[in-house]
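Need a sequence for this fold. Nothing fancy.
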């Protein structure tokens, strides 16, 4: 009887914790999840930062569209970086030039086409986007005042290309 009680105590003592194999399996599972989750999180943060750019450019797109409509569907008269000039003199009529943000290092207005070129900062957005450009080009059908936009980027890798493709 005493021997049986000693064996029961011994058996309970052995099962008081995790075995080395169980701990190794848990560590392996956490490692696999981390290997998948970290790149996905990095892609998510890049996409989130890029998602702010269309909202930043929207007032500029509106100003270009207004210029086109004011000038009877003609975009050729726009002058480069003329943000504050009168619409009758090739300008967009804004109160001030656009200011850089954490997502946009510089803005440029292209003469004759009205394309808005946004230069991203050299660091701070993410691998595929750092230092790249995104171009918003207006298009007007002949005899129409309807403006459509084509969005292109100099970035060549995902998630940058997939995020910009959503803006079209």
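Here you go.
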């Amino acid at each position: 009887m005493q021997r049986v009680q000693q064996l029961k105590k011994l058996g309970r003592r052995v099962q008081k914790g995790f075995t080395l194999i169980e701990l190794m399996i848990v560590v392996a599972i956490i490692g696999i999840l981390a290997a998948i989750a970290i790149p996905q999180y990095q892609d998510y943060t890049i996409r989130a930062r890029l998602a702010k750019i269309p909202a930043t450019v929207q007032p500029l797109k509106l100003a270009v569209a207004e210029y086109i409509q004011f000038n009877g569907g003609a975009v050729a008269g726009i002058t480069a970086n003329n943000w504050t000039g009168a619409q009758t003199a090739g300008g967009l009529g804004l109160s001030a030039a656009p200011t850089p943000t954490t997502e946009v290092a510089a803005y440029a207005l292209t003469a004759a086409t009205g394309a808005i070129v946004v230069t991203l900062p050299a660091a701070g957005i993410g691998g595929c986007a750092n230092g790249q450009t995104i171009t918003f080009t207006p298009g007007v059908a002949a005899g129409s005042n309807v403006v459509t936009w084509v969005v292109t980027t100099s970035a060549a890798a995902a998630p940058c290309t997939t995020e910009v493709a959503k803006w079209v």
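For context: The chain has four helices and four strands.
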